[in-house]
Amino acid sequence: MTKRSYQAPLVLEVQVMFEPNRLEQAVLHQAYRSLVPLVRRQLPAQPVITEHVFQNRLMSEKGNCHG
């Protein structure tokens, strides 16, 4: 039998063709929006409690406790 001649391993070179950036996320988001429907439910409106309303409620509760 004859011996096989030694072959050096093949060296591969990789070239970066795409560099991820902020645009990638926007493109993926747009693709998913076109593929997956967005389901929205209408929730009943709830009153917004502002700091002023919260303080008034707190003061009225304190007044009722010591009455």
TrEMBL record:
This is Uncharacterized protein. It comes from Ktedonobacter racemifer DSM 44963. The lineage of its organism: Bacteria, Bacillati, Chloroflexota, Ktedonobacteria, Ktedonobacterales.
